[in-house]
Design brief:
mainly beta; Jelly Rolls; 9 strands; about 0% helix
């Protein structure tokens, strides 16, 4: 029996774009050592990070790794905002993390069979919309015992685009 052979060979280089390497770059970003607030009189941004890259990033997946629980429900959201103060923040990444159990919890939209589960795009630094990942505590509660890490799996949006190549449609008889 003959061994199957590859139709094409790809050389993956994380420093090159999909146009240069034939493969998409995908990586995890880690936000370690997060806590929650001891008191929030109203919804408050407790952490933020502007996109550190000059490129739009598609958020493919997110993990909240809770190492120390807090008995109080902090109603913590993670989403994209226009600035560090949380203007127009959504809950695209996590909508109310359950912080009363330790473990690894997955966020983002679950992909639907019909392809309707849209992924959010963390816009490039300097963009007027969605350039910040913000963590918001909604509950007026002391959740200061909570210890957790946030991990985001991202892919540069540019790697998904390639207007230089156009494949012909297959004719079906």
């Amino acid at each position: 029996m003959a061994s199957p052979s590859s139709a094409i060979e790809l050389t993956f280089d994380t420093t090159k774009s999909a146009d240069q390497a034939g493969a998409c770059r995908e990586f995890w970003m880690r936000f370690p050592g997060l806590r929650a607030a001891s008191d929030c009189d109203s919804a408050s941004i407790i952490y933020y990070m502007e996109n550190p890259y000059g490129k739009d990033l598609v958020v493919l997946d997110a993990l909240a790794v809770i190492t120390t629980v807090d008995a109080q429900d902090g109603d913590i959201d993670v989403g994209l905002a226009d600035n560090a103060t949380g203007s127009n923040i959504g809950a695209e990444i996590f909508d109310s993390i359950v912080n009363t159990n330790a473990g690894v919890f997955e966020g983002t939209v679950v992909q639907a069979v019909a392809g309707t589960g849209a992924k959010c795009i963390w816009k490039a630094k300097g963009t007027s919309t969605d350039a910040f990942v913000c963590v918001k505590q909604n509950a007026d509660a002391d959740v200061s015992d909570l210890r957790w890490n946030l991990l985001l799996k991202v892919i540069p949006y540019d790697d998904l685009l390639n207007d230089d190549v156009e494949l012909g449609a297959i004719t079906v008889a």
